[in-house]
Amino acid sequence: MGVHAALIPPASDRARTAGMYSTITKEIYINLDQLEHGRRTIDTVIHELAHHRSRAEDLEEGHARDMTNLAGQVVEDTAKGIYDEYLRNLSFIW
C-alpha cells in the first residue's frame, strides 16, 4: 500500500491519465506531470484515495461522496496546521 509517482500512459487519444488506483495492491499511482503543481497533486490523490475508501468507480455516488469528504478534511486539517510539521521535516518526501 502507498502512493507512488509513475509514468502512466494516456487512457485514450483524447484523455490523459492523472492517476490510477490498483484494487489488487491497494496502491495509488500519480502521473509525474501531476506532481508539478500542488493543486493537481492534491486533487489527484483525493480522487484516487476516494476509490480506495469507497471501492467505487468514477461517476458512482460513493466515489463522489468520498471525494467531497476527503477534500473537506484536507481543507480543515490544513487550516488547523496539521500538515505544517510534515513540511518542516527536512526528510519529508512527497
Question: Explain this structure to me?
Answer:
By secondary structure, the chain is an alpha+beta fold. The chain has one domain: Metalloproteases ("zincins"), catalytic domain (Zincin-like, 2-Layer Sandwich). Helix content is 44%, strand content 14%. The chain contains three helices and three strands; from the N terminus they run βββααα. It has a three-stranded mixed sheet with strand order 1-3-2, with helices on one face. Helix 1 packs across helix 2. The longest helix has 19 residues. It is globular. It starts with a strand and ends in a 6-residue tail after the last helix.
Summary keywords:
Zincin-like, 3-stranded mixed sheet, alpha+beta, 94 residues, single chain, 44% helix, 3 strands
Radius of gyration, Cα only, in angstroms? 14 Å
**Sheet with the most strands?**
3 strands, mixed
**Amino-to-carboxy terminus distance:** 15 Å
- Molecular shape: globular
Find the structural class using helix and strand composition. Answer: alpha+beta
CATH architecture grouping: 2-Layer Sandwich
Strand order of the largest sheet: 1-3-2
Discrete helix count:
3
State the helical fraction: 40-55%
Number of strands: 3
Précis, in short:
Helices cover 44% and strands 14% of the residues. With 94 residues, it is α+β, with helices and mostly antiparallel strands.
